[in-house]
Amino acid sequence: MKRFGSFKEFYPYYLEEHKLPRTKLFHFIGTLAAILFLIALAYTRNPLFILGALFSGYGAAWISHFFLEKNKPATFKYPLYSLLGDYRMFFEILMGRHQIF
């Protein structure tokens, strides 16, 4: 298993695992939904929104990896770096740096 000494080293690997625009689109939608669930959690303090954030974020990402990209999610080997990668890619998509259609 490859080891990464920093997120900066990891991120090119992360992007390589997300080649297809549809994979990035699924991640974008899942991350957006997770952010909205976390906002709802902060507003209502209802802990069920934590489950919504987890299921939407990971669910959309894992579906895209298993059925579109046909690889294993980086979350399984690099959980923290993968989470950081999801949010970095989300904001890069917002800034127009990645094609999702």
Describe what you observe in this structure.
The structure is a single chain. This protein is mostly helical. The protein has one domain (8-94). Helices cover 71% and strands 0% of the residues. It has helices spanning 7-16, 21-44, 48-69, 79-94. α2 runs antiparallel to α3. It is globular. It starts with 6 loop residues before the first helix and ends in a 7-residue tail after the last helix. The model has no long low-confidence stretch (mean pLDDT 96).
Helix and strand arrangement:
Elements: H1 7-16, H2 21-44, H3 48-69, H4 79-94
Helix pairs in contact: 1-4, 2-3, 2-4
Q: Could you tell me how far the N terminus lies from the C terminus, measured between alpha carbons in angstroms?
A: 32 Å
Rg, alpha carbons: 14 Å
Count of alpha/pi helices: 4
Number of strands: 0
Quote the average pLDDT.
96
Q: Characterize the main sheet.
A: none
The level of helicity is over 70%
Q: Strand-residue fraction?
A: under 5%
What ranges have pLDDT less than 50 throughout 5 or more consecutive residues? none
**N-to-C SSE string, H for helix and E for strand:** HHHH
Integer tally of domains: 1
Give the structural class: mainly alpha
Q: So what's the overall shape?
A: globular
